[in-house]
Structures are given as structure tokens and as C-alpha cells.
Amino acid sequence: MPEDMPYDIHLEDVPAMAVRSVRRRIRDTQVLGPMIGEALQSLLEAGGLPAGPPMLLFHDEILPAHDLDVEAAWPVSDPALANGRLSAIRAAVVCHTGPYDSLQPVYRALFDWIEAHGLEPTAPIREVYMTDPRTVAPEEAVTVVFVPVVGSSNGQE
After folding, report:
1. What is the DSSP letter of 110?
2. How many CA atoms lie within 13 A of 46 on its CB side?
3. What is the CATH number of the domain that holds 7?
4. Rounded to whole angstroms, how far apart are CA atoms 119 and 115?
């Protein structure tokens, strides 16, 4: 997306969902892809299939670059296959197309938008991966970012 085009940010009510996940504190973001694979393997070994795309949840309210509390999760339709449940949230949401390493401006725009609308960000932040990086070029990767918020919008949605 060109620098001069605004991101299409909006508020969304996201329902609760059952997930199969793995969670750990990491220092190296290179383990994020393998964590998603590990969560999928756990689901498959339990006899299930994903009910939607994979996601990463960042549990720290401020994302330190060197020490992250991260959860890799796959939604499941059968609660018996879940080892976790994500709460329903109200979130500021944006869809980004492009390489994962180009998400920093998206986050900057999201947090600016949240502040401008009189809302307060909370955790965990969700990144939902709508495309498989093994089958699309990095510039075609689609990531939807959900930042949970509290407060009432000042009507600038």
C-alpha cells in the first residue's frame, strides 16, 4: 500500500472462539512460523482439522522486541479439540497485504487511530494469517491485525 493511502481501519466485535494453541515466551521471532506448525500438528494428532486460518496472539500489552509472550493458535469447531478459548473482543482491525516485515507502519497507524478515537488498546493483539506463506509471494501475504480496545469511540469511526 502506498505511503499516502490511509489504512482502512474499523471497529469490529469479534466472537469468542475455541482454539488449539501453544504458548511460550520467545526471544527470536524466527520461531513464530514453527510455533504455528507445532499448534497445527497438535490439532492433527488430536484428530481435528482447523476451522479457520492460523493466528498469533501477542499477550504483552507493549510488544518488546526481545522478549515476547506469544501464542500460536488455530480455531477449532469441536470444543473437545480445544486447549484454549479466546474471549470475545471489540477490536480495531486492519487488513494488510504485503510482507510480514512491513507490518510496523500498520501498527503505528492502528495505534494512532485508536488514540484519535478515544479508545485504549489492550492485549492480546491478534495477527490472523489469511494466506499461506508457502504458496504466495511475500508481497501477496494477507494479514489481518486485531487490537482489542476498551472505551467508547468518539464517533470518528
Report:
1. H
2. 20
3. 3.20.80.10
4. 6
1-33 pLDDT, tens digit each: 334 446 899 999 999 999 999 999 998 888 999
Q: How many domains does the chain have?
A: 2
Which amino acid is it at 97? T
Clarify whether residues 52 and 96 are in a common domain: no
Cα–Cα distances in Å, from 42 out to 8, 19, 51, 63?
A: 35, 11, 14, 27
Rg (CA), the chain: 16
Q: Are residues 92 and 81 in the same domain?
A: no
Mean pLDDT along residues 94-99: 96
Last residue within a domain, chosen from 86, 119, 145:
86
Residue 89: closest CA among 2, 31, 12, 33? 12
Q: Which range of residues forms the domain containing residue 72? A: 17-86
The SS3 call for residue 73 is strand
